[in-house]
User: Fold these one by one.
Assistant:
Number 1:
Amino acid sequence: MIKFLFHRFDKTAAYFIAALAVLGVLIPILNLALPEASTFHIPTYLVSLWGKYLAYALLALALDLVWGYCGILSLGHGAFFALGGYAMGMYLMRQIGSRGVYADPILPDFMVFLNWKELPITWYFFDHFVYAIAMVILVPSLLALIFGWFAFRSRVTGVYLSIITQSLTYALLLAFFRNDMGFGGNNGLTDFKDILGFSIQAPTTRAILFSITALMLALGFIVARAMVASRFGQVLASIRDAESRTRFLGYRVENYKLMVFVVSAAMAGIAGALYVPQVGIINPSEFAPANSIEAVIWVAVGGRGTLIGAAIGAVLVNFAKTWLTGTFPDFWLYGLGALFIGVTLFLPKGIIGTLTARFNSGGKGDTA
Amino acid sequence: MTTDLTDSILYLDAVSVSFDGFKALNDLSFVVGRGELRAIIGPNGAGKTTMMDVVTGKTRPDKGAVVFDGSVDLTTQDESAIASLGIGRKFQKPTVFDYQTVEDNLLLAVEGPRTAFSSLFGWRSKVTAYQIYEALSIIRLGDLKYRLAGSLSHGQKQWLEIGMLLAQNPKLLLVDEPVAGMTDAETEETARLLTSIAGEHAVVVVEHDMSFVRALDCKVTCLHEGTVLAEGTIDSVSANDRVIDVYLGR
Amino acid sequence: MLRTLRIILGLAIALISSAVQLVWADDASIVLTRLATENYSEIEAGVTALAASAIPSAEAVLNALADSRLSYRLSDKAIFFKDTSGKWIDAATNAAPSEQPTGLKPVKVNNRVRRALDAAIGSMTLLSADPKKRIAAADAVFKSRDVNTLSALDSVIAKETDAIVKQHFEEARAAVLILKPDAPEAERVAAADRLGQRGDQDALALLSSVTNANATANVIAAGSLAAKSISRRLALLSAAQNAWYGLSLGSVLLLAAIGLAITFGVMGIINMAHGEMVMLGAYTTFVVQEIIRAKAPSLFDWSLPIAIPLAFFVSALVGLVIERMIIRYLYGRPLETLLATWGVSLMLQQAVRSAFGANNREVGAPSYMAGVWDLNGFQITYGRLWIILFSLTVFLALLGVMRGTSLGLRMRAVIQNRRMAAAMGIRTPVVDALTFALGSGVAGIAGVALSQIDNVSPNLGQSYIIDSFLVVVFGGVGNLWGTLLGALSLGLANKFLEPIAGAVLGKIILLAVIILFIQRRPRGLFALKGRAVEQ
């Protein structure tokens, strides 16, 4: 197993893991150990903000796995992210207990408000952390399995697949807006109190959540890398470049696609589950098709098919978003729009892809 | 008929395919024996490529029987299942995996488990390494094994694709225009290669190049408008009046 | 001579009428004082008596009571009411009092009084000279089913000459009779038939309250027969209405998708900014209307015909710029095109938001688009009718352009075999640019129509883009007729699902069905088959 995970593990990958490890330890220390007056102190809100970036980076990693390595441009990965987020949100809602506005020990506030008497079946067991975590992974995987099984078996490819993945997340958006779905309607789930008994507002909790996110990103990276570096990844690339040729060699293309799609969806779900406690809310707008497309541009900026690039792209774009929406709110959409156009026209390999290509052509001649 | 069926590696009986009213195959029937080398000729639109599509599962016939190895009904299987049964196909336009090395291309083709799960953990064994070495030496690309396939010349890509076919070790090879874009020397070499592998494998070659077909020195089937026009030795077929009318010209 | 006679006659009439009025005033005060109380049963009785009397102010008093404008003076129980302009009127004289009345107390009504009032007002206006008022009165009786009005109804039915008014009277009478247990059986059976002919929800409600408790077997049989015929008619009507709504939604989808049928269906370009082309068309309409409002308000009805060519031009121009600057570098790379045009759509949205603000802008409807055409319960709004006609016109025009013009011929040539077309001297980049501009321009025209039924905001396009793609894919790429059929069938399916599943759930179900459908037939209803399709 260990051998499988670290097969063909190269220097760049090691640097990336090391950087994540440093980040995951250093930021919490700077936040917790230093006095607020210190120049190097990092305020708690920044810790959570960076935690959010890293959760997005995990989503980007998941997307790169299917798009960069298998050519499946999913415009609905936000749906898996949001489903994972909702599963975590439901756990956090059940933890509120009688501290809600209506002080109902079982029912979350919005259900009391809607005059519901009983907990819907979908909410059973969500007070158990382990069950919730299982759902974080299972629900997106199951959706991906069912959807992918239909889509890949009937050979929906290219833009057609993109369009139906977009419709999928759009349908879920509409569904989650409905109050009678029992997921809080358009307000979503919020006002969380604590997680595993620790106050969700406490700086220590925040710092630990950040470290866990960094850890999960590292793990996600290792798994994704192991997959693409194996023979499996080689077949994926073959499917991306010449799907029918791969089929004529006897490979069951749909099974490969399904497997990578499900793994990717599970990663996206975990990213969503990490995102929710750090942001403090999950609502149906996470299903908006625009969100999923935005995630695609993170991958494109960093470089599709590079994994590291996807993660870096997510952090860069979101950092720019935070900065621009704060200082020049009117310019964010111009900037994002220009990014979409500029990257596709002038930087098709993305930042990391372009750098790697330049590095390789400088060093080893014709292998690039 | 029954002995035809059991002795055959490929058996087509009254196969018809139509696209929007156009009959690409019209009651096509012919039989290829085990280990046989067969050349298929015919004008454009005669149904040569559609015939290969039907055999490899890319196109479903509207009616008719397609039987492999005397007993396996191919009309109900899809491409990967048919490939796993032991039918390899080389396309008209060479399709190799441009972004992978020559060696990796062959590695993908080497016979062995094809399931997604096994591919995650299995890598390569000494046996596969030997098979790749063998294929590389047959197609003479040993020196280029670390090159990306996309950087090969047209002829080299054709050879690589044939090498991938060999690595698959199929019972039946379907080869669509293997010498298009090759030099005369390469063409000769290809003819020699195909004749040498026949016997162990059955080979069906679609080709326009009549001197190449002549060099193969095998039974020839001429297709026209989706059906068999003539069948026999190259001399008898090229002497056939109707073949001359529709294909060879006077 | 004649003139003198007329004057004398006139004087005589005036004298007599004033004398009569005096007598009435005296008599009236007796009836009217019955209203000056707080006892509801007394007021109810007063209302009925007042309706039966011939007091000139009766109708006005009853209406005033219904509107809570009626009061009585505590000192002498004289009745006063405020007329519609707010002036006090003395009910006894039906004229303004000499001095402002004081010490007034309003007359109150409860539900029973209100019912009596409705019936009373209804029966009083049965005699009105205005046919519209008579019909309104008949309908009031239909609702109140006051048995006291029966004799009045009988007499007016006999006298009525207007066929439509008479029909309303008879329906009112039937409504009274059907639930009157002591009415002759034959009359009640006839009443059931009459209500069956009326055939609406109200009649159905009445018929369904005919039960064992209040009717004989024959009446019940006639009632249920009539109720069945009404149910059938109503079901048919609601199906027709749904079909109409579906057609209307389908035409909107067609409008939104038809430009896409060119850019995506024919050229294979994934233009995510297509919705923004529609939005630009809608904003062009807004600007045209603003200018017309400011400079030439009389031309307002012409604002849409003026906006159509302008919207086409604006969107086509923007489309041309996008094609020349971005898309032409991305031919053959559909996924990249998708991302780049998404970027364009974001920028266009923000540009419009900066120029016009983020809020909805008001686009007015010309006079010919307002109003409803009621066909025996089947309602057609003129606005929707125009949009359906308009979208079909645009569709046919586009079909004509593709089939009949030299641009259309060259377009089809380039689509089918780019290299061959180029070899024959067709300048394919020009054709590409013009085709894309045409598709964008058509989207702009769609925006003019959609400005009439949707909010004109920077997000207008976003709400159509997914639906448009689904329509084109569902109908079959590269086939305009497929787009038409796809749009109409999705529109109809949506409207027929809505009553069963609700609007949102209906849409979700439809999305799921389309997703499944696309997976079964990835190339739509009218798919091209054959070798050429592969890549």
Number 2:
Amino acid sequence: MITPDIFCVEDDPDYAFILEHAVKEVKNELTLGVVVDGMSAIEQLNNFVVTKQRPKLILLDLNLPGLSGLDVLKKIKETPFLKYVPVILFSTSDNPKDVKASYEFGANAFVTKPSGYTNLVDCVKSLHDFWFNQNKNIN
Amino acid sequence: MAETNLTNCDVEPIHIPGKIQAHGFLVAVNSNNFAIKYVSDNIEEHLGVEPKEILGKNISFFNKVLQDKAEVVDLENLLTLGARQAGFDIINPYKIKINEQPFYLIIHKSNGSFVLEFEPATLEYDIQNVIGKAVSEILINKSLDKLLTKAAQEVKNMIEYDRIMIYKFHEDGHGEVVSEVKNDELEPFFGLHYPASDIPKQARELYKLNLTRIIADVNVESVAISADSTVDHLDLTQSTLRAVSPIHIQYLKNMGVASSFSISLISQGELWGLIACHNYSPKFIDFKAREGCKLIGNILSSALEYRQVEEDTDLQNHYTARLNELSENLERDKVIVNALTAYPTTLLDIVNAKGVALVFEDKIYTKGETPNNEELKELFDWLKLTMTETIYHTKQLSTLYKPGIAFKNIGSGILACMLSKDMGELIVWFKPEQLQTVNWAGNPDKQIEMLPNGEAKISPRNSFATWAQIVANTSLSWSNTEISGVLKIREKINNAINKTANEIRLLNERLKLAYEELDTFSYTISHDLRTPLTSIKSYTELFLLKNNTVDEQGKNLLSRVLSGADKMQFLIDEILKLARVGRAEFELSKINMQELIDEAVNTSVAAYKAFDTEIIVSECPQVSGDQTLIGQVFSNIIGNAVKYSSKAEKPTVKINAVLRGEEVIYSISDNGIGIDVNHHDKVFELFKRMENVKDFEGTGVGLAIVKRIIERHNGRIWFESELEKGTTFYIALKK
């Protein structure tokens, strides 16, 4: 995988599909890379380190088969090359316990997955505005 | 009836009267050296020597005196023989002729003395020959009544007294004539009762030791006994000649009796009664005749014992069978009250009672004839206070418990059995009043006359004319069989209760597990449902956006799909919220309610823009609970109050609290739309919204969540409401 602008770990192919459309809707040039489980995520993260190419934003689903989103988050924050890439926990859960744990592990934001395409477009647009345009100095 | 005992009579030392009856004479010697210690004063009439002539002399001296008037006899040899055999049973009676008259010598040992008693041998009644036939006649009878009547008849045939009575001692010591055979001209005594003091306690003890007792002639003065020293009186307990107490002599005289003879009847080691023989002229029957009668007494005693045991066994078998049936009911029917009352054999059948009442789980159940519920409640309260043992019984309830007089005809006697004192669970059986007419032989209370100096004058009553007394407010007694049966069933019931309690506990455990599982299930399922639902919504939106060829109708249809998905999403979210209450961590603390309520009020006012609503908050005592969850409860209830009163003319919400023991009860009242009384029970159900709330936003989940939270706190929530008037919710929590 060539390092994308947004790296996403999402086990639901439907959601990944919709997300892909939403990203293109926000900005056609934006690239999205998706893996479906924690193991592939770790593998891909290692790849980024090897190729010295960081994604600009990581979207992490919390509930994943095998390794959980929090495990992946931990790995990211432990990897010096990646530790400053903004990681947004992207989950259906809005359970306060999950939110708390995510921040403890170093998440930069916790976003409840918007339902529906329109909402998702709005969400991605806002994320893009914040993390790509206004906070350019981060990258 | 006031208890009248002739106290003097009870302490009279009747076993050492210092006198003998006049029909015989007595000599007593030291059992070691055979020196003569006592002699009756009438020895002179029979042997022509004065007492002082022989007192202190050796038995051999007396032997010589005797031989002058009688045939050759070796008393020393007789005594040595008796001493060696530890008794004189084979020697007694020793036949001897004194002045050509036949006498019986009867010897017994009394403390340190051998007592030699000489009495006439009349040989009048040859009982040995008829006794076998008499006994078999008596024993033919199966019933106790006939057995006794026949025994009286046979005794009369044998010794020909004017009146033969069988006299039975009751529990309290008073006697009753239960059988009688008499000469025709005599007035009957059958059925008469005699007070316990007529035969005082120590007399009854003597009847147990001496199985026969003869009083030959009440009108003859008794004869004094002279002694060589005045230190000890001779103990005449075993004596056949023992003089009669002057009180008893007077008693017999008052009855017109000149001579009496009695045979003791012993059952299970106790004096059951007497065969009492009266004669209206002096009468003496000799030792052999008396021994024959004693044998009849023995045989009748064992027959009595056997019959009594047999009757007891029959009764016991009957109750044991009922008890077993009831125990089987308890094993078969888990509902204990049913097991005890709903089958052919009930609690009522295990004792001889007319009614039974059971308090179990705060309810009263009755069988048969019992006092009414009000009376029962009062009685139960009294028993709960009074009973210190598991079992309490009385045959005269009203003497101890005054209100009992109201139901004396149903329950003069009660047998109460405590199942659990903590729970106030007990069983009470009732025996009705047994109105008994007791025919006393004379007024038993008129027995003590006081002398002017204040001392009691001992005077057995003169009149034996029937004096009837009605014994009221008294039931039959409770037997040991009944009481032990009740104790047995108590154990069975308690076992059954424990078993049921264990089953309930197990069920409770399973229910708790199931509840937890349901929470987990609702949580997981709603979570998992969200993902595909999101897909449905997203694809539909994406399709609508990207496909320009869709016509208006197509768009319309797809927007229906979207709104359906939204609605479903909403419901799933609500279920998640409810499930979360069950799963939430629970942290107990003392909650500052003032703060919590202020916040809930502010949020509610803001949320419903109810700035016109007057909100009156009084006392806010603290409660124990989980801060977050209790906050949710009050936000919800206060929110509802604000919401549903928002369209009232002058919206008012009042929040108040009272302390009730360990609880704090909060009330939240509004003057809103109210809740239809027909839907009272649906209010706390999930997704249930009332008819009249259509104009208000809401989901029907709030109160379900509230109830769930209160339940987790072991609190209570309820409400009062009237349509168009308003609603008050009450929340009770531990303080």
